[in-house]
Amino acid sequence: MVSPTQNPKKTGEDGPSTPSKPAFEPREGKQVKSSITLPDELWHTVLECPCTFPTAVFNTVMLNLIKNPNITSSHLFRADIFYDSETDHSFNPDDASDPYRDGLVAHMKKELQPIRANWPDFRLERTVVRQLIPRNPQLDKPIVQTCHIFEQSRSEGEQTEHRQLVLYIPHVLKLENMPFYHPTVSQLAFLHTWKSSSNLPESIKKLAVSEETNGGSQEAPGTLTLLYRLFPSETLTTKLSRTALKLLQTIHKHGQGQLAGYEKRVHHDQIIPQKRYQDTYTLLKAKYGRHLSEKWVEVTDPGKHVFEDIAIAAFLIELWRDMYAAPQLIVPMNGNGGVPQENEEDGGTSREDEQLPSFPGFVDIGCGNGILTYILLAEGYPGFGFDARQRKTWSIFPEETQCQLEQKLLVPKVFQDAYSPTDSTGQTPSSDSSQPEVWHSGIFNSSSSPTNLPPKEGPFIISNHADELTAWTPLLAYLNNSSFIAIPCCSHDLSGARFRAPAATARARAEAKEEKGKGKLDHPLAFETKRLPQQQQHEVDEEDTAAGAERDSLSTPPSPMKIPESGSLRKSLVQQRLASAYSTLCSYVVSLATDEDLCFDKVEMETLRIPSTRNTAIIGRQRQQMDGEEGEDIESRLLRVKELVEREMKSDIGTVAREWIGRAEGLMKKPGSGH
């Protein structure tokens, strides 16, 4: 017996009860009287549950699951769509013998053509053929699957019963050929039944009230049913029942979420198509994953660091494929001794490559364990990495990689020029890190770099969880005329100190306040950073009001009283309006890049598919040419950066330089971590 998932109302002493979501209450197929005719005796009703979302919502959910099977199986990457009848103008669902006659299907490979199917008393509406792509193709092979959408409507008086059935048919004939990630059934179907009437909106309203007040005792106007078509001589196993429960629960959850107005907050693949990224990731994972994990010498988890850096390398390679002509590939692990090789698909010269600039090299600032640098070098992209501390991992790399990894301390040239090598007592510091030979100026088009990089365009700057260097990344990119990617982690200001970043630069905040003073802005400054209520000094009676939150964004409250902690984990209205420290850090880096001194006019953001909550990539690859910039020497650029740093830090450059170098000296003394 399948136990229903209870979803009781939540009550507490600190406030009114929280409205509950409709409960997921599945019933076994034995308890369900079938309301439709099944095609044959191999079909079985497995589970059914009530739902409160209409057919249109079910259709939206199922189309999303067809396109994104990874939602229901963590073993899958995605689905590649080979055919969709929506784009086939010859598709004729009224042709029972062959609805695809004379259409696109005739030109497809036989193994990719949709498998014909009918369902008694239902009308075919749409057909999709997809290929399920597994995360690990070395364990499981991709399979092709036909997805049919059928519909049926019946009216009786003022009531209409509408049914939509989604049928999955894997292109697998034998049970033993079914991959692990797919249920061991020959077909499966999802049926949505919806009873509607002229007063349906009112009935839905009453239903919602009923569920909140008495636990959902009123009968729902809809049902979800899952059906299996078993292979001959097979029975319904416990594993198949568990799979059915998970599938039905996912559809119910997504349907109720859609009904409640859920909107997806995180959008992946805005810059690089999902297929390109995942295909490259799969290749790199097979090539480097086990090799690096087995040789891991740090105390940290290789499963996180290795595969996170492989994923970032895959993203960078695909990003560079769009920006630069592909370099010759160097394959040091294939027995060719690292000899550059032409690759027709990845490294060969194409007509598109001839129109793209040559790759300018890369520099991985704060490279940490060096895995990202190693993979990019091994894939044929010239560059180097440096970090304040040498890592044990560097020793496992080939010699040609080790000589491109250096223990260096980034002391930006504006700091070096302003730094006086004396401490507060007037004595010269004795630390080795205060010696210029272990410093890197952040000017990469110089002979001091380990590799000779083209002077016309600076190297692509990589700042992957580089902490103190994150805010400096767009500044270094401006100084070197480089493109960059920054993946922020911890928040540090331009002196290297920990802080909660504002969401914009001082200049941008001042300009916005000036605009508001002129009456040109009629809303609070969206990027004003506020502390949490229990840290904020303000009047108690406004702590949870929208007016108080709006006031806090523009002024300092007068009351010296601090808000006591209530013990409740629920967010107040003020807290709900606060952006997270990570999101404001990302916004701050974007604001630095787009500052009129640096002029990156196209800064893009992408949520990376990596095993980390710090997964936002900020990419600057287009700068707006400023008046008089052509022929601008490095000294002029350094002056702009100096002025920006002093403006942000509200201090002279010499003071900021001493703070940076003092912190950097301590950083070099710390033991290296896995990253």
Automatic annotation (TrEMBL):
Keywords: Cytoplasm, Methyltransferase, S-adenosyl-L-methionine, Transferase, tRNA processing. It catalyses: uridine(44) in tRNA(Ser) + S-adenosyl-L-methionine = 2'-O-methyluridine(44) in tRNA(Ser) + S-adenosyl-L-homocysteine + H(+). It is found in: Cytoplasm. InterPro entries: tRNA_uracil_MeTrfase. The keyword Transcription does not apply. Residues 1-35, 335-355, 420-452, 508-567 are annotated as: Disordered. The keyword Cell cycle does not apply. Residues 508-531 have a biased composition (Basic and acidic residues). One of its GO terms (biological process) is tRNA methylation. GO terms for cellular component: cytoplasm. It comes from the Eukaryota. Residues 420-436 have a biased composition (Polar residues). GO terms for molecular function: tRNA(Ser) (uridine(44)-2'-O-)-methyltransferase activity. Its EC number is 2.1.1.211. Adenosyl-L-methionine (AdoMet)-dependent tRNA (uracil-O(2)-)-methyltransferase. Belongs to the TRM44 family. This is tRNA (uracil-O(2)-)-methyltransferase. It comes from Cercospora kikuchii.
